[in-house]
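Customer ticket, subject: "Can you confirm the structure for Replicative DNA helicase?"

Message body: Hello, I'm evaluating your service for our small team and ran a test protein. I'd like someone to confirm that this is what the system normally returns, since I don't have a reference to compare against.
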Amino acid sequence: MNAFDNLAEPAGGGMLGLSQRLPPSNIEAEQALLGALLANNKAYERVSEFLADEHFADPVHGRIYRAIQRRIEAGQLADVVTLRAEFEHSGVLDEVGGPAYLTQLLTAMVGIINAGEYGRVVFDCFLRRQLVDLGEVVVNRAFGAEPELDGKAQLEAAEQALFNLATDGSSDGGMVSFEKALTAAVELAERAFSTPGGVSGLPTGLRDVDSKLGGLHPSDLLILAGRPAMGKTALAVKIGFGAARAVQREALEKDPNAVVRGGVAIFSLEMSADQLATRILSEQSRVSGDRIRRGDIAQRDFDKFVEVSRELSSIPLFIDDTPAITISALRTRCRRLMRTKGLSLIIVDYLQLMRPAAGTRPENRVQEISQITQGLKAIAKELSVPVIALSQLSRQVESREDKRPQLADLRESGSIEQDADVVMFVYRDEYYLAQRMPKELNFDNQEKYTEALDKWQKDMEGAHNKAELIVAKQRHGPTGTIRLFFEGEFTRFGDLEQTHDQDDYA
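Agent reply: Thanks for trying us out. I re-ran your input and got the following:
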């Protein structure tokens, strides 16, 4: 048993009724810590990383700790004599107990070496006081203190508050030795060296994308943006499906009887789960999704459709089509999926349809998007998985001669661009060329019209079934343009040189 376990018990003990209990605190630990700091300022190094003055239950102790902190960080001595002079000069000596109390703190010290342990006891009591406060808020809301929040919104607000406390209140982390960091870097390089194509991250199923990005890396937030009809959803689903199949293949290669863990979660805020499934089936079976919806297919096509659906049923892909999902609800569902099925990739379609955490009221849309992108980045880091978030682009793209997107075209671009590790734009020149077909009535004579029409047809042939993925920002690698194959009938992306009957994932 740790010698300080008994110090962390809440004042009042566990046998008292709830209404009689006092907030968790440990005055003895606070006094012992302050005494250790006053006796030897080097002890401050053991607690400076995680402890602040507001963590003390006794406000007097918080004020004394703040004075010690201020002097030490200014390179000055903090002991009973210097603190007495400082408090006396500012006229608050009596408020902190006078000279006698400062001297008494020294006698409360057990040992300098225990300062870190005392600090953790103080911090633990602070966290538990925060949990008590949070619990009171949850109870009051449940009794109707905030009638504008229904039960579901209250759950989401409670989850968000707990997450904030866990994030802001964590005393973990800190320095990592360079040796440990080097080991991780070598392991990453070894994985890339031993993997065909030099992919160290999660494969996307698109060779040229993997080559440019090195796969999808844990903790990264990737933004995939584009104007409507460019194929954002189709490309994201393609990447998600490719990643899920790669996870499945790797697991079964190691053990053919293995239960595959580490699936792909797609949060579709715009399309329903069955619509996304139809897209994947259409792509894999080479049967037009539009014809499937209208029932305009032959028996042979339907049989192929059913056969492919059986083959794909084991793919570890999970779809959540909850509209206007909040960042806290998304986090909760991802945590649950990670715990039960494993999780390798999160896709959100799309960013602007999400809502910030329940209980928060951003002042404007930019601030709201900033909260969402920061939340997605936090989820990527917490779960150590890549997160791909789709984003709409502003209409200013349409006003330019060259319609290729730029970073400035991102809606609320400041926060999105800042939080993202990778920003990619999907662009299809064929879409815009089709709108610029020459009209005979706009030309003075037939010859000019024929010349313009021939040029347009040539440009259309050059752009037919081609798309560009523009990597405008990549924190850990090069930027540039990746040329992709796009087949509109099946909303299918692939590597550019692939023919219609090749398997994307062979």
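A couple of notes from the result: Strands lie at 221-226, 263-268, 317-320, 343-349, 387-392, 422-427, 466-474, 480-487, 492-495. Residues 198-427+465-495 form a domain with the Rossmann fold fold (CATH 3.40.50.300). Feel free to reply with more questions.
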